[in-house]
Q: What sequence folds into this?
C-alpha cells in the first residue's frame, strides 16, 4: 500500500513539475503545448547521460538543462519571431518525438544496476518535496512579489505593461525558460526515477495531461497541486489497480485508458457554462497572442 | 556606417507563390540540417538520398510500398486539412485510424464468410463510421462547449491505443502469435487495380473532391469563413456547432478509411500486428500534420508531397540497413522539418523591409 | 524574403533581449521638477515639427504650460493633436524643434524618459490591466516598488493623494468593475504616484457621463490648485473642458491657429478656428410616410458577456420607414440589445415580434432569411473577413440563398455580378473586386459592410455604431445611405454614441441608461440637454421640469 502511495506521489511529482512551469508560462501569456516534447527530451537526455556517465545526478541536471534550452527555443519562436504559439509548441513536440526515437530508442532498456536514485524510506524521492516547494515558490512569486505582478500584467495586457516600463519580451522569456527547465526535470525524473528504463515515447501522454491540468487549475498553484495529486493517483491506479482494488478484473488495456478519459471528463465539466465564466475571468487575457510592439 | 533601419511589415496571410516559397525554404533547410546529421553519423548525404529514392521509386523494389504508404499519409493529411480549414486542430488521426481499424475488423470477423463484393464495402463503411464517431466526440465538445480539441483528440488517441491493445493482446481478437490479431478472412483483402490496392485511387479521388469542395461548394465556403473569422461567420448565421461536428465527422471518417487501406491493402499485414508495430504505423499519422501545413492546406498539393514523404519512409529503412544508421531516421527528419517550418512561419506573416531613407 | 536579411534578424533578436532596460534605477529627477512655483513654466515646446510621408503633422508648433495651469489643446481629427501629444510624451521624436523642461533642453528616447521627468499621460484607450486591482495597477512598474511590494503603505500613500484631490475610488476593486470615469482616475493616480507634475490627458471626457464629467472637472481644478500642470487634448465637449481651463490653443492642419485665454474666447469663434468654416451639418431628412409596425419588443432582457444582466427589460416598437435612435454611452446595454435583436445573444426574458411573428427563439440564419440586416459595431473583427476578397465578403450574406448557391455549389457568375453592383452602389474604393478586405481603409470597410448587408435587408436594419471612428466623408456617406433605406420603407434601429447624430437622424429617440430606456421621445420634442441628462440617468419628468423652469 505504501509503495502504491509512494509511486502515486512520484507521478504527482512529474505532473507537478511539468505543469507548474507551464502555469508560470501561461500567466505570462505564453502558451506552450509542447510540454510532452519537453518531457521527452528531458527524459531521453537524462537517461542517456546517466547511462554514459554513470551518474544519476548528472542525468537530472542535463535533462533539466535540455528542457530549458527547448523552452528557450519555443520562446524564440513565439516571442521574437511571433509565430503561432500552438504551431511552435507542436513543432517542439514532434521534433522531440523524432529526435528521441532516433537517439534513444536504440538504448531501450533499463539503467544498469547500481544506478539508483535517492529515496526516502527507499521509496519517496526528495524531488517530490522539490516539486512541492516549487509550487509554493510560484504561488508566492505570483501573488506577493513585484516580479509576479509584472508577469501577470504581461499575461493580461502586454501593451499596458510595456507602457509602465516592463520589458515584455524579457519577462516572457523568463517564464518560458523556467517552464522548459521544469518540464525537462519532470521528464528526467520519469526516466531516471519512476521508470529507470527507456522505451519508445516513454512519456505516454503525461505531458498532455499536464497541459490539461494547467487549464483545470484556473491558473492557481494550489488548485494545480490538488489536481496533480488526483491525477497522480488516477495514473498510478491505471497501472497497478490491484494494489487498491484487487480482484477488480478489468483487463489491462481498458484500465490504462482511465487517466485519459478522466481528463476529457474534467475538461468537459469545466467547459460547462457555470464553470466557463469563472474560467474565462481567470484566464490571462493575452494568452496565446504574440505581442507586437506598436 | 549606419545599419539599415528595418521595419516589420505585416503581410496579410501570404498566399500563393509567396507562401509556397516558405514551405520550400523550410524543406531545403531541413534537408541541409538532416544532411549535417548524416555527415556526423559518417554517411555521405548524396549517397544516402540516392539510396533512398532509387529504392523507393524502383518498380521492382519499393514503388508499390512507397505508393501504399504515401496514400496512407494522404488519408491522414486530408483528415488534418479539413478541420484546420475550419480552424480546428485535429491531432486525432491516430485515434480515428485505430477506431477505423476496430470497425473494419469487427465487420470482417463477424461476417467473414460474405463474398468480397459485400464484405469490403461493409468494412469500409464501418471503418468510416467508427472513425467519424470518434472524430465527432471532439467536434461535438468543441462546438457545444468550446473544449480545446487538441487536448481532447490527443486523449482519444491514447485511449484508442489501449483499446487495440486490449483487443489483440490476450483479448477477444488475439491470434496465434501472442500479441497479434487473428488474420483477416481472404475476402476482406483489398482487390488491386494495376498492381495497387484500390484504396490508393480512393485517396486521390477524395483529395480531388476536397479541392472542389473547398473552392466551389457552399459547405466549403462556410468552412473557410469559419476558419478565417469565426465571429464574423457567426454573425451571418453560420453555426459553429454544425461546422465543428461536420468537419470532425468527415475527418474521422477519412482517417477511419485509412485503416482499411493500411491493414487490408498491404500483404505484409492482413491483420493487426503487435503493439510496437501498430504504434509505429499510428505515429505515421503525425506526418499528416506536417504535410498538411507544408501544402498550405491544399488537398491537391498534398498528393505529390505525400508521395515524397512516403518515399522517405520506405527508403529510410533501406538506408538504415545499408549504412548502419540508428532506427527512426525518418521520424528525425520529420522533427527537423517541423522545426524548420515553424521558424520560417515568421515570414508567413511578416516581411522585413528596409526603411527607405528620406532624400 | 531574401536570405540577405538574415543578419538583420539576428540583430533584431539581440536588441529584443538587451533593448529596453527593465527599468533604469531612476526616479523622477526630483531636481528638475520639485519645488515648482505657481505660474512657473514647466515645459516649453519650441518649433516642433514632425513630418510623415505626404503630410506635415506638426508645423513649427510652439507651446508652453505653467504650473497650476490648465491649458487645453483643441483640434479636429487630423489636426496634429495626437502627434503633438506623442512627442510631448516621448512616443515620437520631433524632426525639428526642441522641448525644454524648466528651461533645460531634454530629449525623450522613450516614454520612460518623459515619465522620469515628471510627465504623465492618460490615454484615451485605457492602458490598464483589467484583471488587477486599482492599487496593483498604480504600483506596477514603479521603480521604488520593492521586490515584495508593501501594499499597505502604497494604499496609504495613494489614499493621501486621493484625499488631496478629492478622488473617490475603491483602490481594492478590480479595474474591470470600475466605471470609465473611475478607471481614468486610476490612470491619473498612477501618473501622480510616479511623481508626475505635468499631466497630458487624451480626450478625457469622451466616455464620461455628464455627471462623471462634472466630477472629473472638479478634480482637475483641485489638481491645478495643487500646482500640477494639466494639458487636456480634446475634440468634443468643448464647453465643459473650456470651463475649467485657463488657456486654450487651437490646432488646425498641424499649425497653431490661435492661442487664447479662455475667458476671452467664445464658443463660436473657437469652433471656427478649429474647422475654418461655419460648421453646419444639417442632414436632409426626407419626408417619409411611416408605415405599419415591423418590430415590437416587449420587456426584453439579456446578459452581458460577464454574465450580469445588462439589458433589463426594454419595450418599444419600430415601424416601416422609421428610424428609432438609441442614445447612450457605451456599456449601458445597447450592444446587448442589438445582438439580442440580431439573434446573436440569447434573450433572457421578454419577446421579440417581427411583423407579428414571435422570433425570440429564431436563429441568426432564420432572421437573415426574413430580411433583417445587422451592421455590427466592429468592422474589422466581426463585420468583415480580412483574408477574403471583396466578393467573398459580400457572399457572406448570399450563401444561404439558393439563387446564388445552387445545389450546394457557388454560382460564381451570379455572385460576382451581385458583388460588382453592390460595390459600385456603395462606393467601395478598391483596385478590383478581388482585392482582399485587409487592404481597405476604415471608411471603405464600413461601406463594404453596407454593400453586404443593405441589399439583402428588406424590412429591418439594425445599425450598431455605424459611423464610429469614420472620417467626415465616410460618415456623411453612411448617414445618407441610412436615409435612403428609410425612404425604401426599412425600419431602422440606430445605435450611436454621437448625440448629434442620433438627434438629427431619428424619428424617435430612446436614451438608454443601465439597461433601461429612460424614456422614448419624439425627435421634434427632443432637446440635446435633456437627452444628454437622460443618458446619464436623469428621469424624464425631472428634465421636463428643468426645461419648464427656464
A:
Amino acid at each position: 500500500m505504501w509503495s502504491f502511495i509512494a509511486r502515486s506521489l512520484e507521478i504527482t511529482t512529474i505532473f507537478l513539475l511539468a505543469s507548474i512551469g507551464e502555469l508560470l508560462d501561461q500567466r505570462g501569456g505564453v502558451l506552450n503545448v509542447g510540454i510532452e516534447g519537453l518531457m521527452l527530451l528531458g527524459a531521453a537526455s537524462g537517461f542517456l547521460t546517466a547511462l554514459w556517465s554513470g551518474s544519476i545526478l548528472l542525468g537530472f541536471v542535463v535533462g533539466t538543462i535540455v528542457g530549458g534550452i527547448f523552452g528557450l527555443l519555443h520562446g524564440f519562436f513565439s516571442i521574437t519571431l511571433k509565430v503561432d504559439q500552438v504551431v511552435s509548441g507542436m513543432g517542439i513536440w514532434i521534433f522531440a518525438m523524432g529526435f528521441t526515437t532516433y537517439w534513444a530508442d536504440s538504448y531501450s532498456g533499463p539503467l544498469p544496476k547500481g544506478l539508483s536514485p535517492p529515496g526516502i524510506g527507499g521509496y519517496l524521492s526528495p524531488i517530490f518535496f522539490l516539486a512541492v516547494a516549487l509550487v509554493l515558490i510560484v504561488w508566492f512569486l505570483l501573488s506577493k512579489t513585484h516580479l509576479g505582478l509584472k508577469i501577470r500584467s504581461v499575461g493580461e495586457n502586454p501593451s499596458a505593461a510595456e507602457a509602465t516600463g516592463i520589458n515584455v519580451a524579457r519577462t516572457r522569456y523568463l517564464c518560458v525558460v523556467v517552464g522548459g527547465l521544469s518540464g525537462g526535470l519532470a521528464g528526467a525524473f520519469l526516466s531516471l526515477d519512476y521508470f529507470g528504463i527507456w522505451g519508445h515515447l516513454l512519456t505516454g501522454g503525461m505531458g498532455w495531461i499536464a497541459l490539461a491540468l494547467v487549464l483545470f487549475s484556473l491558473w492557481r498553484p494550489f488548485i494545480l497541486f490538488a489536481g496533480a495529486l488526483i491525477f497522480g493517483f488516477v495514473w498510478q491506479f491505471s497501472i497497478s489497480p490491484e494494489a487498491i482494488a484487487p480482484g477488480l478484473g478489468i483487463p489491462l488495456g481498458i484500465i490504462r485508458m482511465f487517466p485519459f478519459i478522466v481528463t476529457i471528463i474534467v475538461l468537459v465539466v469545466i467547459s460547462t457554462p457555470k464553470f466557463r465564466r469563472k474560467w474565462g475571468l481567470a484566464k490571462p487575457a493575452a494568452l496565446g497572442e504574440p505581442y507586437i510592439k506598436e | 556606417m549606419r545599419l539599415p533601419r528595418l521595419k516589420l511589415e505585416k503581410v496579410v496571410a501570404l498566399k500563393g507563390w509567396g507562401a509556397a516559397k516558405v514551405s520550400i525554404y523550410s524543406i531545403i533547410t531541413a534537408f541541409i540540417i538532416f544532411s549535417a546529421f548524416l555527415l556526423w553519423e559518417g554517411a555521405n548525404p548524396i549517397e544516402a538520398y540516392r539510396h533512398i529514392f532509387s529504392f523507393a521509386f524502383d518498380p521492382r523494389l519499393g514503388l508499390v510500398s512507397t505508393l501504399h504508404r504515401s496514400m496512407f499519409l494522404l488519408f491522414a493529411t486530408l483528415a488534418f486539412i479539413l478541420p484546420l480549414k475550419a480552424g480546428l486542430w485535429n491531432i486525432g488521426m491516430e485515434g480515428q485510424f485505430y477506431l477505423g481499424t476496430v470497425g473494419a475488423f469487427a465487420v470482417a470477423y463477424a461476417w467473414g464468410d460474405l463474398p468480397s463484393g459485400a464484405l469490403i464495402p461493409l468494412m469500409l463503411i464501418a471503418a468510416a463510421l467508427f472513425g467519424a464517431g470518434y472524430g465527432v466526440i471532439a467536434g461535438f465538445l468543441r462546438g457545444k462547449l468550446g473544449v480545446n480539441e487538441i487536448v481532447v483528440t490527443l486523449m482519444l488517441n491514447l485511449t484508442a491505443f489501449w483499446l487495440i491493445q486490449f483487443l489483440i493482446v490476450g483479448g477477444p481478437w488475439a491470434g496465434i502469435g501472442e500479441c497479434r490479431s487473428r488474420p483477416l478472412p481472404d475476402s476482406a483483402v483489398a482487390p488491386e487495380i494495376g498492381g495497387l490496392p484500390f484504396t490508393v485511387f480512393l485517396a486521390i479521388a477524395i483529395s480531388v473532391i476536397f479541392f472542389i469542395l473547398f473552392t466551389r461548394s457552399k459547405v466549403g465556403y462556410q468552412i473557410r469563413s469559419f476558419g478565417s473569422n469565426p465571429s464574423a461567420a457567426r454573425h451571418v448565421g453560420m453555426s459553429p456547432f454544425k461546422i465543428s461536428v461536420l468537419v470532425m465527422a468527415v475527418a474521422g471518417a477519412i482517417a477511419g478509411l485509412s485503416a482499411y487501406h493500411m491493414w487490408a491493402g498491404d500483404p505484409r499485414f492482413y491483420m493487426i500486428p503487435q503493439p510496437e508495430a501498430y504504434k509505429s504505423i499510428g505515429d505515421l499519422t503525425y506526418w499528416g500534420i506536417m504535410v498538411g501545413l507544408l501544402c498550405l492546406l491544399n488537398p491537391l498539393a498534398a498528393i505529390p508531397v505525400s508521395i515524397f514523404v512516403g518515399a522517405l519512409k520506405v527508403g529510410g529503412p533501406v538506408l538504415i540497413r545499408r549504412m548502419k544508421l540508428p532506427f527512426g531516421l525518418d521520424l528525425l527528419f520529420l522533427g527537423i522539418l517541423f522545426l524548420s517550418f515553424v521558424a520560417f512561419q515568421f515570414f508567413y506573416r511578416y516581411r522585413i523591409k528596409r526603411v527607405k531613407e528620406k532624400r | 524574403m531574401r536570405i540577405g536579411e538574415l543578419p538583420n534578424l539576428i540583430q533584431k533578436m539581440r536588441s529584443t533581449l538587451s533593448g529596453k532596460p527593465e527599468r533604469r534605477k531612476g526616479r523622477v529627477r526630483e531636481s528638475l521638477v520639485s519645488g515648482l512655483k505657481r505660474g512657473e513654466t514647466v515645459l516649453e515646446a519650441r518649433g516642433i515639427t514632425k513630418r510623415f510621408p505626404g503630410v506635415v503633422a506638426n508645423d513649427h508648433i510652439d507651446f508652453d504650460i505653467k504650473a497650476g495651469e490648465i491649458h487645453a489643446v483643441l483640434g479636429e481629427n487630423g489636426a496634429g493633436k495626437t502627434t503633438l501629444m506623442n512627442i510631448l510624451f516621448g512616443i515620437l521624436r520631433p524632426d525639428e524643434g526642441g522641448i525644454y523642461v524648466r528651461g533645460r533642453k531634454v530629449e525623450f528616447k522613450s516614454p520612460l524618459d518623459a515619465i522620469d521627468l515628471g510627465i504623465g499621460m492618460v490615454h484615451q484607450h485605457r492602458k490598464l490591466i483589467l484583471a488587477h486591482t486599482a492599487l496593483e495597477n498604480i504600483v506596477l512598474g514603479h521603480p521604488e516598488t520593492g521586490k515584495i511590494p508593501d501594499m499597505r503603505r502604497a494604499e496609504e500613500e495613494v489614499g493621501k493623494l486621493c484625499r488631496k484631490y478629492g478622488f473617490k475610488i475603491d483602490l481594492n476593486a478590480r479595474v474591470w468593475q470600475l466605471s470609465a470615469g473611475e478607471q481614468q482616475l486610476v490612470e491619473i493616480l498612477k501618473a501622480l504616484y510616479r511623481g508626475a507634475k505635468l499631466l497630458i490627458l487624451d480626450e478625457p471626457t469622451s466616455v464620461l457621463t455628464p455627471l462623471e464629467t462634472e466630477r472629473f472637472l472638479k478634480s482637475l481644478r483641485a489638481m491645478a490648485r495643487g500646482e500640477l500642470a494639466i494639458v487636456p487634448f480634446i475634440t468634443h465637449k468643448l464647453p465643459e473642458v473650456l470651463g475649467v481651463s485657463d488657456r486654450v490653443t487651437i490646432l488646425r492642419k498641424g499649425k497653431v491657429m490661435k492661442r487664447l485665454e479662455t475667458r476671452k474666447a467664445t464658443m463660436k469663434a473657437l469652433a471656427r478656428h478649429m474647422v475654418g468654416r461655419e460648421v453646419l451639418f444639417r442632414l436632409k431628412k426626407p419626408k417619409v410616410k411611416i408605415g405599419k409596425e415591423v418590430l415590437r419588443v416587449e420587456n426584453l432582457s439579456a446578459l452581458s458577456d460577464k454574465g450580469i444582466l445588462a439589458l433589463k427589460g426594454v419595450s418599444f416598437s419600430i415601424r416601416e420607414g422609421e428610424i428609432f435612435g438609441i442614445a447612450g454611452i457605451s456599456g449601458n446595454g445597447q450592444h446587448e440589445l442589438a445582438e439580442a435583436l440580431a439573434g446573436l445573444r440569447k434573450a433572457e426574458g421578454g419577446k421579440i415580434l417581427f411583423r407579428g411573428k414571435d422570433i425570440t427563439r429564431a436563429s441568426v440564419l432564420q432572421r437573415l432569411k426574413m430580411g433583417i440586416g445587422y451592421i455590427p459595431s466592429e468592422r474589422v473583427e466581426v463585420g468583415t473577413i480580412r483574408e477574403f476578397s471583396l466578393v467573398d465578403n459580400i457572399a457572406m450574406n448570399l450563401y444561404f440563398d439558393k439563387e446564388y448557391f445552387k445545389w450546394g455549389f457557388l454560382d460564381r457568375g451570379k455572385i460576382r455580378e451581385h458583388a460588382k453592383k453592390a460595390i459600385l452602389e456603395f462606393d467601395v474604393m478598391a483596385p478590383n473586386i478581388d482585392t482582399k478586405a485587409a487592404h481597405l481603409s476604415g471608411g471603405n470597410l464600413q461601406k463594404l459592410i453596407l454593400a453586404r448587408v443593405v441589399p439583402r435587408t428588406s424590412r429591418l436594419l439594425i445599425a450598431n455604431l455605424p459611423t464610429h471612428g469614420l472620417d467626415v466623408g465616410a460618415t456623411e456617406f453612411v448617414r445618407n445611405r441610412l436615409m435612403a433605406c428609410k425612404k425604401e420603407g426599412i425600419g431602422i434601429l440606430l445605435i450611436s454614441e454621437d448625440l448629434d447624430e442620433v438627434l438629427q437622424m431619428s424619428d424617435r429617440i430612446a436614451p438608454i441608461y443601465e439597461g433601461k430606456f429612460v424614456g422614448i421621445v419624439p425627435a421634434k420634442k427632443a432637446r440635446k440637454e435633456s437627452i444628454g441628462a437622460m443618458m446619464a440617468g436623469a428621469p424624464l419628468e425631472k428634465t421636463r421640469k428643468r426645461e419648464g423652469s427656464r
Q: What stands out?
A: The longest strand of chain A covers residues 109-110. The CA atoms of residues 237 and 244 of chain A lie 7 Å apart. Residues 168-195 of chain A form the longest helix (28 residues). Chain A touches chain C at residues 76, 79-80, 144-147, 149-150, 152-153, 156-157, 159-161, 163-167, 169-170, 173, 277, 281, 284-285 (CB under 8 Å).
